[in-house]
């Protein structure tokens, strides 16, 4: 069974490239194919890693089929859209709004640096990122926002909410270089503004935001690739080499700091991160049975305004599962695994179907229009995030990310202008 996901996603990728070329759906599929291959390698490593000896976990047929079919179904609408098909591009309704949004996010990025400069300097010069991470988990390194009070804390909270939405500025960067006559310096500033989540990730000693940024840059590139002119490729390569290189260096630094002194080493740590989603999904499916809906992470805003977390917080929920089953669920298990852990087996099957329906509805609408626009790309990007980042977990698990999602969906309506022949 361990070979089935790799065979499935490799065949799916082959068919997508044969018909569409390397489009958005191929980008998504390749991530799951690579992860599935890492699962095979990991399953043959007889080693006691932090949470498990993955070679001892039995992989059964049913969770394997659920994993492949639900993820494949969610990818299908993006395959149907075929982002490699060059469509007429509808102009924005309000170019000044575009400038206002980009300037606001550039301001947010530099304001985050100014506001949290002391915390950034402390973390940068501390040296041992693994120790800082343990301190954060154990409560000895407080959340940077919680260290403030009053109006300053309110301002810091607003900044972090806006900062989580900065992933969408990657789209604005590509739109600017493809369709607007902006200077290179301004375009670089737009891309820099998209780094706010990485900055906040550094404050939290968290690599996932950097991984998300890299994955979402690839997603945005695939959306805009048909519109990138040859003269712009050199600028893109240089910019990506510098900014992307810094992001990758940070990932390497944190990974080596965390795993370098362990038996498996940094390479073993990377293998665990890449290969564990499918194996963990199967183990949780066969061994953990959820008797209630835990919506605090799936519907964070709704749960917050209803005044609770279904009887406990996330840490208590995770601890309760471990004490009852002996299975660690504070791991990577894909977005489908997230639905499984928080809401049960039925939800793991039904919610991807709902997502498929929502995605199909929007994709069909954009196909019928026969044009593309920044507005449609914002919506496709917002939905594609679930799959692209879903190799790790479900993306929209925090209030800032959900608020950012709805802000940009609203902005997509303001930016949309019907195409005129």
- Percent of sequence in beta strands: under 5%
Number of helices: 19
Sequence stretches where pLDDT stays below 50 over 5 or more residues: none
The count of domains is 1
Overall 3D form? globular
Indicate the percent of residues in helices: over 70%
Class by helix and strand content? mainly alpha
Mean pLDDT, to the nearest integer, reads 88
Can you give me a brief rundown of this structure?
This protein is mostly helical and 421 residues long. The protein has helices at residues 4-20, 24-43, 61-81, 95-115, 117-126, 129-137, 150-164, 169-179, 184-193, 196-203, 208-224, 230-259, 265-287, 300-305, 314-325, 334-343, 345-369, 374-388, 399-415; strands spanning 88-90, 371-373.
Written overview of the protein:
The chain has 421 residues and is mainly alpha-helical. It has one domain (4-415). Helix content is 71%, strand content 1%. The chain contains 19 helices and 2 strands. The chain has helices at residues 4-20, 24-43, 61-81, 95-115, 117-126, 129-137, 150-164, 169-179, 184-193, 196-203, 208-224, 230-259, 265-287, 300-305, 314-325, 334-343, 345-369, 374-388, 399-415; strands spanning 88-90, 371-373. The longest helix has 30 residues, at 230-259. The chain is globular.
Secondary-structure blueprint of this entry?
Layout lengths: L3 H17 L3 H20 L17 H21 L6 E3 L4 H21 L1 H10 L2 H9 L12 H15 L4 H11 L4 H10 L2 H8 L4 H17 L5 H30 L5 H23 L12 H6 L8 H12 L8 H10 L1 H25 L1 E3 H15 L10 H17 L6
Parallel strand pairs: 1-2
Helix pairs in contact: 1-2, 1-3, 2-3, 2-13, 3-17, 4-7, 4-9, 7-19, 8-9, 8-11, 10-11, 11-18, 12-13, 13-16, 16-17, 17-18, 18-19
